[in-house]
Design a protein that fits this description.
The chain has 6 helices and 2 strands; from the N terminus they run H-H-E-H-E-H-H-H. By secondary structure, it is mainly α. It has a two-stranded parallel sheet. Helix 3 packs parallel to helix 5. The radius of gyration is 19 Å and the shape is elongated. 53% of the residues lie in helices and 7% in strands. It has a single domain, classed as 3-Layer(aba) Sandwich (Rossmann fold), CATH 3.40.50.300.
Length: 115
C-alpha cells in the first residue's frame, strides 16, 4: 500500500491517514519484503505514532529476520526499538487456527453417516 501510494504520488495523504487513528493494526509484517521507499515510509509512520498512538502487528517472522523484511538491518533495528519500547510481545506456537478448523471439518465429515 505504501509502495503504491509512493508510485501514485499520494504518499503524503496515505501517511497522514495511517498516522491519525488511535489504534493502527498491521497484519502480516514480513509476508512480502518491502521496497526501500516503503520501508522508510513505514519507519516514519512508526516514528510518528511512537508514544502517541497504539500499533498492533502480526508476523510469522522473528525479530531477527526483520532486517530482511525491510532490506536494511539498521532500519529494522530503529523500527523495532520504537515498537518494542512500551510493548508486549505475544508469541503463539502451534498450528494455525485455519489448519485446525480444516482438519476438524475433515474429521467431522469422515465420521458422518453414509461416508
Amino acid at each position: 500500500m505504501l509502495q503504491q501510494a509512493y508510485v501514485n504520488q499520494t504518499i503524503k495523504q496515505k501517511m497522514k491517514a495511517l498516522s491519525k487513528p488511535s489504534l493502527l493494526i498491521i497484519d502480516e509484517i514480513g509476508y512480502r519484503k518491502m521496497e526501500e521507499p516503503a520501508a522508510h515510509f513505514f519507519f516514519q509512520i512508526v516514528s510518528e505514532r511512537y508514544e502517541s498512538g497504539s500499533i498492533i502487528l502480526t508476523s510469522n517472522k522473528s525479530y531477527g529476520s526483520w532486517g530482511d523484511i525491510f532490506g536494511d538491518s539498521v532500519l529494522a533495528t530503529a523500527i523495532l526499538d520504537r515498537l518494542l519500547h512500551h510493548s508486549t510481545t505475544v508469541k503463539i506456537k502451534g498450528e494455525s487456527y485455519r489448519v485446525k478448523e480444516k482438519k476438524k471439518g475433515e474429521i467431522l465429515q469422515a465420521g458422518s453417516p453414509g461416508t
